[in-house]
Amino acid sequence: MLLALDVGNTQIYGGVFDGGELKLRFRRTSKGQAASDELGVFFKAALRENGVDPASIDEVAICSVVPELIYPLVQASAKYFKSEPFVLQAGIKTGLNLKYKNPQEIGADRIANAIAATSLFPGRDLVIVDLGTATTFCAVSAAKEYLGGVIMPGLRLSMESLSSGTAKLPRVEIARPPALVGKTTVEGIQSGLYHGNLFAIKGIVAGIKEQNFGGNALAVGTGGFSKLFEDAGVFDKVVPDLVLHGIAEAVKLSKEKKTK
């Protein structure tokens, strides 16, 4: 089995693949320092509590946008799973033609999303929207050209900024409000967060489609907040686990390269 780890700025999102099937998902905060033993013990406990024998893990793969966590994760993999992990980074075979001026600037999670989306939706022009700590947009052509993208603050960052930068506005649950015009301060903030992001996503997706694909491309939503907009008419497909599938696909591509 493969333990896939997506290390974001807020959380570590983990998944276990048995063959091509995603059997288990779990999350852990990625804030602050973490020792390799702390991480290794957590991963084994999370597997056991969800009915997966840690001894069945024979591969570990890491995709990280937090550089300082890569080393302890590599050490945890070696000690607790007897595995030298696959790390998705520059130079790894992805099957993508990266058109970025400096490809090493592209976040590993964005690469993983693009790998998965081109595998799941082959031959399609794609706009991939990942709603996490940041909201990112990636344009990928049907020829697997990674054209670039857009980055904006995510919902939680926007909410925290509003709360910390004002005297009286509270932190609120990030949720779809009952109406555009809120009847309370909480509803007003929720509406601003939800509809502000909804209209921004709609406008940016439409702009990317028009400028790069003649107005026609598949819009794919992913990330922790993607389900919030599932019925809002902005995405053609919502695949919350896209990054995990991309990590697993990157491992597969790497193996194929070694056998050639």
Structure description:
The protein has helices at 36-49, 67-81, 108-120, 155-164, 185-213, 242-259, and strands at 2-7, 11-18, 21-29, 59-64, 86-87, 97-98, 126-131, 134-140, 145-153, 218-222, 237-238. With 260 residues, it is an alpha/beta fold. The protein has 2 domains: 2-87, 2-Layer Sandwich (Nucleotidyltransferase, domain 5), CATH 3.30.420; 97-247, ATPase, nucleotide binding domain (Nucleotidyltransferase, domain 5, 2-Layer Sandwich). Strand 8 and strand 9 form a beta hairpin. The longest helix has 29 residues, at 185-213. The model has no long low-confidence stretch (mean pLDDT 93).
What's the SSE blueprint?
Layout: E1 2-7, E2 11-18, E3 21-29, H1 36-49, E4 59-64, H2 67-81, E5 86-87, E6 97-98, H3 108-120, E7 126-131, E8 134-140, E9 145-153, H4 155-164, H5 185-213, E10 218-222, E11 237-238, H6 242-259
Parallel strand pairs: 1-4, 4-5, 6-9, 7-10, 10-11
Antiparallel strand pairs: 1-2, 2-3, 7-8, 8-9
Helix pairs in contact: 1-2, 3-6
Keywords:
single chain; 260 residues; alpha/beta; Nucleotidyltransferase, domain 5; 2 domains; 11 strands; globular
